[in-house]
Specification:
single chain; 125 residues; alpha/beta; Nucleotidyltransferase, domain 5; 5-stranded mixed β-sheet; 5 strands; 32% helix; globular
């Protein structure tokens, strides 16, 4: 099952103090999620991925006997989770959470160009 995630960061904060958004979509299930988040560009990206992984973990009946393919457009974060590149110290907690999900959920994580990321539609501001 194809799943897409994204995180966006902006320089200014909203009235609520958040400076970013996280999003994921699972087209086969008709699911789209969007929430505000505060953090750096990479922290927003990790938060989008972690929100998707938490959803998958909490809804195993939707993913039973399905191959889970996750797509995102931040090459740096994807390379870190796929253990091709070591993250900076401040991102290690996020990486550890994402890698922890790999022990519970069999998924692949792949990079796609921004214009192919279906999660970006729910981030239009």
């Amino acid at each position: 099952m194809r799943c897409f995630y994204q995180g966006r960061h902006r320089e200014d904060s909203s009235l609520t103090g958040h400076n970013g958004f996280v999003s994921f979509t699972i087209p086969d299930l008709g699911i789209a999620f969007r929430a505000q988040f505060s953090g750096s560009k990479d922290e927003c990206e990790y938060a989008g991925l972690l929100a998707l992984l938490e959803f998958v973990e909490l809804n195993p009946h939707l993913f039973k006997n399905k191959r889970i393919e996750i797509f995102g457009d931040n090459y740096k974060v994807i390379s870190q989770v796929n253990q091709q590149v070591k993250p900076p110290k401040d991102l290690e907690p996020y990486l550890n959470m994402a890698v922890g999900y790999k022990t519970k959920i069999p998924f692949t994580l792949k990079w796609i160009p921004d214009n192919e990321n279906l999660a970006q539609d729910s981030l239009a501001v």
